[in-house]
Amino acid sequence: MMKEILLNAFDMNCIVHQSPGLWRHPRDRARDYRRLDYWLELARTLERGRFDALFIADVLGVYDVYRGDASEALRGAVQVPVNDPLPLVAAMATVTEHLGFGLTASLSFEHPYPFARRLSTLDHLTDGRVGWNIVTSYLESGARNLGQRQQLDHDQRYDLAEEYLEVCYKLWEGSWEAAAVLREAAANRYADPARVHPIDHRGRYFEVPGIHLCEPSPQRTPVLFQAGASSRGTAFAARHAECVFAAAPSKTVLRKVVEGLRHQAEIAGRAPDALKIFNLHTVIVDDSDALARARHREYLDYVDLDGALTLISGWTGLDMAGFDPRQPLAHVHTNAIQSAVEAFSSADPGRVWTPEEVARWVGIGGYGPLSVGSPESVADELEAWVEETGVDGFNLAYAVTPETFEAVVDLLVPELTRRGRYKSEYRSGSLRQKLFGAGDRLAAPHPGAGYRFETKRERLEVAR
Amino acid sequence: MMKEILLNAFDMNCIVHQSPGLWRHPRDRARDYRRLDYWLELARTLERGRFDALFIADVLGVYDVYRGDASEALRGAVQVPVNDPLPLVAAMATVTEHLGFGLTASLSFEHPYPFARRLSTLDHLTDGRVGWNIVTSYLESGARNLGQRQQLDHDQRYDLAEEYLEVCYKLWEGSWEAAAVLREAAANRYADPARVHPIDHRGRYFEVPGIHLCEPSPQRTPVLFQAGASSRGTAFAARHAECVFAAAPSKTVLRKVVEGLRHQAEIAGRAPDALKIFNLHTVIVDDSDALARARHREYLDYVDLDGALTLISGWTGLDMAGFDPRQPLAHVHTNAIQSAVEAFSSADPGRVWTPEEVARWVGIGGYGPLSVGSPESVADELEAWVEETGVDGFNLAYAVTPETFEAVVDLLVPELTRRGRYKSEYRSGSLRQKLFGAGDRLAAPHPGAGYRFETKRERLEVAR
C-alpha cells in the first residue's frame, strides 16, 4: 500500500512568518492576524483540505542580531509584532471538527504546573485535537525579558527539558486514575478522592507536590512535536516526540535526518515508525507549470532581502550584515553557516551561495525546499521526497496567505487524493488516533505512558 | 436621570463555582464545562441580555483546608477540577459582538512579560472587549506547586503587585507610540522602529529591558478589575482598578465599602465615580413571587453543606470542621469569622449564624445576597440596593447554570429596561468605552496613563 502523505500548515500569530516582504503582496491577508475572522477562515480552509493540523510557531523575543538591533525586524514586521498563539486554538476549534492544532511553547517561559493545565484545557475544549511543539531553546532577547541574565547552556537546557516533561507526564498521566471521575449525582460524588493522586515531584528544577487540577482530557498528554537538530536535540526528540519537524533543503540531507531520527528512536526502545517526520516545504501550485512559475516570479518581486537576512541572522546567531551580500559564503568558517551552505548546495549545486542568494531562498517559506508547478508536477515532487527520504509528510509554509494554502487545498489535495497518497476523509477520534490509529493516549514504550498511575501500580505489584 | 444598573455574569471554568451541590440539579449543565458549545451558548445568552461582561474566576490550587485535605473538594467538585479560563475568551468572542470578558489572573503565576502579551492578544482578537481581574493573593496550595515554599507576606504581595502593574503599563502604554504602526506597503515599512521603545525596566522583582511584542490593541491596557477587602487591598484597588468587585451581604456593609472605595479613589487623585463597583448577588426570578420562592426551595434541596464548608474554610483559612455545625459562631474569635458573622447578621439579624446556616447562605451563590421573586420584586430590590448603597451594578452568581442567567435575561432584564434602569441597546466601542463612555484607553489621572510614551515626552518637554 502506498504511504499516505501527511500535511501540516505552518503559521504564526504575526504578519511575517517565513516570507519576509510578502505581506505587501496585494492578495496577502497576513495583516489581518489580529482579527478572529481571519483565523476562523483559515481553519475552515484547512479542514476543507483535510489538513492534519495547523501548526502555530512562536517566539517570545525579537530578531535583533541583524545590524545589532531590532530595527529591521520592526520595519519589515519580521516575526514582530507577534501575538500569543494560545487563544487562537479554542477559537478555531469552534468552526472545525477534525483539524488538529499544534501549539508552540517554550519550556522556559512558564512553570509546568499552570502550563499543564492550559494544555489539558485545550485538549478538553478541542475534544482531543491538540499537539504541543516542545521548544527548549529560544531567542536570547526573550530570555533577557524574563529576568534571566543568560540562557542555560545547551546540556542544562535538555536536563531541564527532561524534568519539565517528567512533571507534565506525572500531572497528565499519573494524577487522575481513569476511574477517578464518577459524576454520580445520586451519591453526591463527582470524583473519587482516593483515585486522584498528588504527584509529589521533587526535582532539581521543580517541586510540584499536588494533584493535576484538570480531570483527564481525551488525549491526556497532547501529541508531542519537536524540532531538534543537535545530537542532544535528536536524542530528546527520539525519546519524547511523536512528530518531528525537520527543515532540510535537499533530499540528501533529509534522508540522513530521517534515518538518524528513526535510528535514535530504536535506541530509545521505540519502533522506528513511532515517529512521524514532517519536512518544511513550500508549495506554489497553479493550473499549469507555466502559471505556477509566473506566480513564483511575481512573489519573488516582493521578497524583502533585509527581512530574510534578519531571520537568518537570528537563526544562526551571526550578523549577516558583516558579509558582502554578493560574495560567496563558502569561506565563512562557522558551523551554522557552513552547514547551511552545504545543505543548500546539496539542493542546488550550481548556485553560488552569497548572503543575497540565501536570503532569496529563505524569503519564500524559510529554510525548506520549494515546489513550483502544476498539481501533477508538485504531486510528483512530493511523492519523490517521500519515496527517496522516508519522510512522512510536509510542514507547509506559505508564501502569500491564505492564497498558498487555498491553492494547496483546491489543486494539490485533489491530485494527491486521486493518486491514493492522501486521505479521502478524516479518520475519527483524537489527533493522536488520527495520526497513529492506535488510541487516544500515549502507549508504551513511550516514556510518558510509564507515568500512568495504573502502570505504576502494576509495576509495584510485579515487584512484590 | 436614573442611574443605569450594570450586570456582570460571574462564572468559572469548573463544575461548582459558588453553588456547591447544585451540579446535581437535573437542569444544571455545569458538567458540560469541558465543551466549547456550552460556553458559546452561555455567551450568546448573555449578549442577548446585554450583559456588560462575563467574568471568569480562577484559582490555581485546591480547597484543602476543610478536614485538612482536598477530599471534600474533589468529591463535591468544589472548584476542582478547574480548567484555565483564558482559552474560553477568544472562543466566546467568535459568537458575540459586544459582550465583555473579564479574566482572572494572579500576579504570582506568570511573569509579566508573557502575561502582557497574552492580554494584548485577547484585546486584539476581541476588538477591545477584555478586562483583567487582578488577583494578588491565592490559595496556599497553588503557591506550593509553583515551588514557592510560602507566600510572600501581605505587604510584600502588594509591593510586587505595584511593580507587576508598572511593568504591564510600560509594555502596554509606553512601548509603542500611537504613530509607530505605519503599514506602508509601498515604502516597505510595517512599523517605525524609532517609535517602538524598549521599556528598560529594572526593579526589585522584575527586569524587563525590551519592547512589548504586540502592536497596540484597541484598549492597550485591558479594563482593570479588582476585589480587595483589606486596607492595603482597598488602596490598591482605588489606585489601579476601574471596576471593583465587592461581596457584601447587606446594604449596611456595602454602603460602607462603596463609600470607603470612593473616598480612597479621591485620595489617589481620581474622581469618586471613576470606579464602577459591582456587588456579588444571586437572583432567582420567576413569573411570580410564589413561583420564584418554590424554585428557591427546590434549589436549596441540592445544596451540599460539606461543599459549602469546603469553600468557607478555604476563604477564611479556618477548618470549619473544627466547629459544631449547629452551634452559633458568635464566640469564635478570629477576624475572618467575626467579620463574616457581623456581615451576615446585618443582612438577617434574626438568624443564628451556625456553620450550617452560613453554609446554607453560601450554598446559593457564595457570600453575596440573594433576591428571590417576580421580575417586579427583584427589580425593586436591586433598585433599592443601588439607591441605598451607591453601588453601580451586580456581579451575578448562578445557582443553576445556565438557568439562572436565562431567567435574568428573559424576565429581569426586560423589567429593568422598562424602568429605564438598564440599557436598551449596547453602546458601541470597546469595553472601556461602553462602561465609561470616555474613550478606549486609560485616561489621566489613572496612573497607567502616565506611562504613555507621549505623556512622558510632554513631561520632559515641560521640564526643559
TrEMBL record, chains A, B:
<feature type="domain" description="Luciferase-like">
    <location>
        <begin position="34"/>
        <end position="392"/>
    </location>
</feature>
<dbReference type="InterPro" id="IPR011251">
    <property type="entry name" value="Luciferase-like_dom"/>
</dbReference>
<dbReference type="Pfam" id="PF00296">
    <property type="entry name" value="Bac_luciferase"/>
</dbReference>
<protein>
    <submittedName>
        <fullName>5,10-methylene tetrahydromethanopterin reductase</fullName>
    </submittedName>
</protein>
<dbReference type="InterPro" id="IPR036661">
    <property type="entry name" value="Luciferase-like_sf"/>
</dbReference>
<feature type="binding site">
    <location>
        <position position="154"/>
    </location>
    <ligand>
        <name>FMN</name>
    </ligand>
</feature>
<feature type="binding site">
    <location>
        <position position="104"/>
    </location>
    <ligand>
        <name>FMN</name>
    </ligand>
</feature>
<feature type="binding site">
    <location>
        <position position="158"/>
    </location>
    <ligand>
        <name>FMN</name>
    </ligand>
</feature>
<comment type="similarity">
    <text>Belongs to the NtaA/SnaA/DszA monooxygenase family.</text>
</comment>
<feature type="binding site">
    <location>
        <position position="230"/>
    </location>
    <ligand>
        <name>FMN</name>
    </ligand>
</feature>
<keyword id="KW-0285">Flavoprotein</keyword>
<keyword id="KW-0503">Monooxygenase</keyword>
<keyword id="KW-0288">FMN</keyword>
<dbReference type="InterPro" id="IPR051260">
    <property type="entry name" value="Diverse_substr_monoxygenases"/>
</dbReference>
<feature type="binding site">
    <location>
        <position position="58"/>
    </location>
    <ligand>
        <name>FMN</name>
    </ligand>
</feature>
<dbReference type="GO" id="GO:0004497">
    <property type="term" value="F:monooxygenase activity"/>
</dbReference>
<keyword id="KW-0560">Oxidoreductase</keyword>
<dbReference type="GO" id="GO:0016705">
    <property type="term" value="F:oxidoreductase activity, acting on paired donors, with incorporation or reduction of molecular oxygen"/>
</dbReference>
<dbReference type="InterPro" id="IPR016215">
    <property type="entry name" value="NTA_MOA"/>
</dbReference>
